[in-house]
Amino acid sequence: MGFLFRVSSASASANGARRLLRRAIQAAYSSSLGWQSDSGYKPGAIGRALRGEGGGGGGQRAALWPGSFIPLALAASAGAVAFGFGPHAALCDAGDDVSMGGEGRAEVLSRAAHREAPMELIDELIAVFGDSMTLDYEERHFHGKPQNSFHKAVNIPDVVVYPRSQEDVVKTVALCNKYKVPIVPYGGATSIEGHTLAPHGGVCINMSFMNNVKALHVEDMDVVVEPGIGWMELNEYLKPYGLFFPLDPGPGASIGGMCATRCSGSLAVRYGTMRDNVINIQAVLANGEVIKTGSRARKSAAGYDLARLLIGSEGTLGVITEVTLRLQKLPQYSVVAMCSFPTVKDAADVAIATMLSGIQVSRVELLDEVQIKAINMASGKNLPEVPTLMFEFIGTETYSREQTLIVEKIVSEHNGSDFVFVEDLEAKEELWRIRKEALWAALAMEPDSEAMITDVCVPLSRLAECISVSKKELDASPLVCAVIAHAGDGNFHTVILFDPSKEDQRKEAERLNHLMVHTALSMEGTCTGEHGVGTGKMKYLEKELGLGALRTMKRIKATLDPNDIMNPGKLIPPHLCL
Questions:
Q1: Cα angle at 528 between 522 and 533, to 5 degrees?
Q2: Boundaries of each FAD-binding PCMH-type domain copy (predicted)?
Q3: Would you say the C-alpha torsion 356, 361, 363, 366 has a positive or negative sign?
Q4: What CA–CA distance (Å, rounded) separates 250 from 245?
Q5: What is the separation, in whole angstroms, between the first and last Cα of the chain?
Q6: pTM of the prediction?
């Protein structure tokens, strides 16, 4: 038995619509039935528009339509219990049932208690957002299911809101704090460690409409942006001014999410990571207060470095609403080079030797023979299927060519061959496009597989050893495994393909992931160089950082977010007590 519910601004006042919505939600909760829409409504219009899937004109916005299952029924079916958390929850999250894996488990299944959004909160959010929010099941499920991650959660958000201003965010956070309902900030959804999961349900804040450039200061080489703008869109905006933002993570990443995860990319070897390229942040804290972390000055010794505290906090301390970024001049000239090696160790040795030579390369990328094979299959190329290094040299034409010749000599001294370089713009863009699409090429090798992606980083001097040890295990595994490395700063990824329906393959993928993390930790490295912790890497933090550091992080979190509403269940292990 179902029922029909519709809010029409033409036929009902806002107050009347809210009363109708409230009665409909209460009826659905009490009957545990899904909600149905008439044929004139297409659920999830906002989400489809943001994902480029069509479904209506550009002016169409999400309606307040529930889908086929209500959050309470979903939580009940999973055995979750809905109850409110007080301040004590931030000190010891004993209420969470989080399967963090162990020695052989890489994925996280969050079975945290569903902290249900009460009707009073729904009413007040409707007053703030009108039809710029949704209760549609499909839309909530899309936001609660990671798009690029194998991590899972039982619960999904109870509601998704689409703020268009900092004031919208302030009101949302203040309301969620008032009712002690969790908040999950949502950006480009490109993270792979479960950052946007909603283990407690709650309110998902989709920042996609906060995507404006607020101010560009060409002479100061900085730009003020909202968090929803993507780095690729920002660079298109900056190109006519001869400027660019130098971080280049995965396509689709937004500036807010890049700050939250402290990301980097292939250019980090020259320009640093996100923490080196942010001048100022504005963020909304858990109590609804807006703070800024600094001025536009290029350097400052005024107070605690709050920007660096928020960068990498993964939404657990506040919601980022504005970012001032350091920009760079577009290179005058560049050369891209490729060369081949008999082993990944030889390739890694050349990357190390190049960095020790003092040459300021802008990129040094390593791809193993499996990844090159995947690229050939996906793009129709005919590259030698052996470990390969890709370099980029920038500067004046003379300087770029001089660097290229020096590296060519280094390559010849380390068993390298087939050294080629290109200076034509289209040829250079094609080579880097191949690198940027390496993950999708690897996935195409096993179309029905999922990817478990590692993100270890070690001191540069240990890179060759770490890759060699890992590669022996990868080559001996029955799974298809491809290696991609930002070799200039010791960071490498392994794309491990496995069939999620086959338990033996999942266990093997987890074993390989665990092995590589602990190999890196034994070499004074880290479990994550740029992807962040999320839910997937929490179990490694005690070994990497120690209990003292984790307790300090927990104290900071408990002080700034005593009701534990800011992206709970991420970054800080839930079993940790103060």
A1: 120
A2: 153-330
A3: negative
A4: 14
A5: 49
A6: 0.83
pLDDT in tens, the chain (578 residues): 333 333 333 333 444 444 544 444 444 433 333 333 333 333 344 554 455 444 433 333 333 444 433 333 333 333 333 333 333 444 555 444 444 444 444 454 555 688 889 999 999 999 999 999 999 999 999 999 876 677 777 899 999 999 999 999 999 999 999 999 999 999 999 988 999 999 999 999 999 999 999 999 999 999 999 999 999 999 999 999 999 999 999 889 999 999 999 999 999 999 999 999 999 999 999 999 999 999 999 999 999 999 999 999 999 999 999 999 999 999 999 999 999 999 999 999 999 999 999 998 999 999 999 999 999 999 889 999 999 999 999 999 999 999 999 999 999 999 999 999 999 999 998 888 888 888 889 989 998 899 999 999 999 999 999 999 999 999 999 999 999 999 999 999 999 999 989 999 999 999 999 999 999 999 999 999 999 999 989 999 999 999 999 999 999 999 999 999 999 999 998 878 77
- The structure tokens 């858990």 sit at 286
Q: CA 281 to CA 278: how far, in whole Å?
A: 8
Domain 333-523: assigned CATH number:
3.40.462.10
Q: Can you name the CATH fold of 119-206?
A: 3.30.43
Tell me how long the chain is.
Answer: 578
The rounded distance, in Å, linking the Cα atoms of 150 and 456 is: 18
Nearest to residue 91, comparing CAs of 547, 420, 576? 576
Q: Which two tokens stand for residue 426?
A: 């289209």
Q: Where are the domains of the chain?
A: 119-206, 213-329, 333-523, 538-576
User: Would you say 554 and 485 are in contact if contact means Cβ atoms under 8 Å apart?
Assistant: no
- Torsion sign (Cα): 140, 143, 148, 150: negative
Let me know: does 172 contact 205? Beta carbons within 8 Å.
Answer: yes
